[in-house]
Design goal:
It is a single chain. The protein has 12 helices and 16 strands. Strand 9, helix 5 and strand 10 form a beta-alpha-beta unit. The chain starts with a strand and ends with a strand. The model has no long low-confidence stretch (mean pLDDT 97). The site of one zinc ion has 6 residues, from helix 4.
Length: 343
């Protein structure tokens, strides 16, 4: 079968690899759509995430949907033929984290498209059947692939414990930031302020529930947010950017005793942090690691139309043009929000 393999920084080649066979508890999935995520870009660009870098050629991709063609003996045969959104990280299910409900931080997690594990930019993959979630017919394969970033946004908003009427700032209006805005509104947030370094993404924020958006490269983030909130700061700040600056900015734009949820991945091992600001304001900081138990709810929200996955999916490419798709997202070309590879 065909696969798109990253063989060097910014170089993806179509190669032939063996088609996998499902183990007893697994489903064989014909991949339909793979979204390109900001975290994939760290590997595509060759910089890596923290200490994790690409040292061997790697198949990228983890946000995906597909049709189940076959299941192993221990998996439910009724799954066959379904379009499914697949929760990509496979935990060990035995360690303390897994046994206490925090399987998203399992140390033995197998995550596709994160070195050393090959991702899903290929024709067929196998996954545990219980991590495959059938989606209703009204969702297209491309939208079903976006259940994954939507699950990240739901987990992000959950961690903030947003209450009705609270104000929030969203730093970074890529797909996760935009969906976080939409989910924060759904959770009852009042005024939402959004920032990005790209004008078109700030504008996109306004279509995803952000009330006031600005370009953080042109206006001072802290001054502008304080100004919009009468000097008080927001109740909650979400960092959804790929930046080493935004964790610190989040601390500076929240009110005293406010909450910051840090979901964006700068890729650095360490980022500078205004510890004095955080201590003075007695802030609550919560890092977000992907999601846990969020796929069924993400599917329900998407099916109800409360998450606008259709507006997010701006670009589609065939597998053969994966290189072009990654370059487009990496360069933020053509006003791209989410690009997907559709097989
Ligand atoms: Zn992702
Ligand atoms: Zn575990």
């Amino acid at each position: 079968m065909k696969a798109a393999k990253c063989i060097a920084p910014r170089q993806i080649r179509i190669v032939d690899v063996d088609k996998p066979a499902p183990k007893p508890d697994q489903a064989l999935i014909r991949v339909c759509s793979v979204g390109i995520c900001g975290s994939d870009l760290h590997y595509f660009e060759g910089s890596g995430i923290g200490e994790v870098t690409v040292t061997e050629p790697l198949i990228l991709g983890h946000e995906f949907s597909g049709i189940i063609e076959e299941v192993g003996d221990e998996a439910g045969a009724d799954l066959v033929g379904n379009l499914v959104a697949v929760e990509p990280g496979i935990p060990c299910r035995q360690c303390e984290s897994c046994r206490t409900g925090h399987y998203n931080v399992c140390r033995d997690m197998v995550f596709p498209g994160g070195p050393p594990y090959d991702g899903v930019l290929c024709e067929y993959v196998t996954f545990p059947a219980d991590f495959c979630f059938p989606v209703p017919q009204k969702l297209s394969p491309t939208q079903a692939a976006l259940i994954e970033p939507l699950a990240v946004a739901l987990h992000t908003v959950d961690l903030a414990r947003v209450r009705p009427g609270e104000t929030a700032a969203i730093l970074g209006l890529g797909p996760v930031g935009l969906l976080t805005a939409q989910m924060a509104k759904l959770a009852g947030a009042g005024q939402l302020i959004g920032t990005d370094l790209l004008d078109y993404r700030a504008e996109a924020g306004l279509r995803f529930g952000v009330d006031f958006a600005f370009n953080a490269g042109k206006h001072d983030t802290v001054e502008t947010v304080l100004d919009r909130t009468g000097g008080r700061g927001v109740d909650v700040a979400f960092d959804c950017a790929r930046s080493s600056d935004t964790p610190g900015l989040a601390c500076k734009v929240v009110r005293p005793a406010g909450r910051c949820v840090l979901t964006g991945i700068s890729g650095a091992i360490e980022d500078p942090f205004p510890v004095n600001v955080a201590r003075h304001k007695e802030l609550t900081l919560h890092w977000c690691r992907r999601f846990r138990f969020d796929f069924p709810r993400a599917i329900a929200v998407a099916a109800s139309g409360q998450a606008d996955l259709k507006a997010l999916a701006t670009h589609s490419f065939p597998l053969e043009r994966s290189q072009e798709a990654f370059a487009l997202v990496s360069n933020a070309g053509d006003n791209v929000l989410k690009a997907s590879i559709d097989l």
